[in-house]
Amino acid sequence: MPDFTELKRIARQETGAVIEGLPAALREAALKVPLVLERVPTDNQIADGLEPDLLGLFVGPEYSDQEAHGSLPPQILLFLENLWDFAEEAEDTFREEVRTTYLHELGHYLGLDEDDLDERGLA
């Protein structure tokens, strides 16, 4: 497995390309939600019910609900070691899965549910 620094470099490259390819209005929204790159879910996240092999997660209020008070700020988390394992340690597959997972979580930020994402091939 490449080291975590290399996985982060690849993930930033891929998510940056995704953002650049978005229509202007969506690009603007995507730039407002921070991207957090982690190795795997934390023990606390797993204790809270997340699966240990989770690929990505969106937390916080949706884009249309930015005025939500008392909420965590929105953010997209990608779990890079899980993505690498899911890609069966193939870099091209890892890059593709980073793009797909990022778009999936960005879709949640934009208010899409699982059915909406499935219709767009992002489930």
Walk me through this protein's architecture.
A three-stranded mixed beta sheet has the order 1-3-2. With 123 residues, the chain is mainly α. The chain has helices at 4-21, 24-30, 43-47, 80-86, 91-109, 114-119, and strands spanning 35-38, 56-59, 75-79. It is globular, with a radius of gyration of 14 Å. The two termini are 26 Å apart. It has a single domain, classed as Zincin-like. Helix content is 50%, strand content 11%.
Topology of helices and strands:
Layout: H1 4-21, H2 24-30, E1 35-38, H3 43-47, E2 56-59, E3 75-79, H4 80-86, H5 91-109, H6 114-119
Parallel strand pairs: 1-3
Antiparallel strand pairs: 2-3
Helix pairs in contact: 1-5, 4-5
Can you list the strand order of the major beta sheet?
1-3-2
Oligomeric state of the chains in view: single chain
- Which class in CATH terms? Alpha Beta
Number of helices, counting only DSSP H or I runs of 4 residues or more: 6
How many domains is the backbone divided into?
Answer: 1
The proportion of residues in beta strands is: 5-15%
What distance separates the N and C termini? 26 Å
The geometry reads as globular
The proportion of residues forming helix, as a percent range, comes to: 40-55%
What average pLDDT do the residues reach? 92
Q: How do the SSEs run, as a string of H and E?
A: HHEHEEHHH
Low-confidence stretches: none
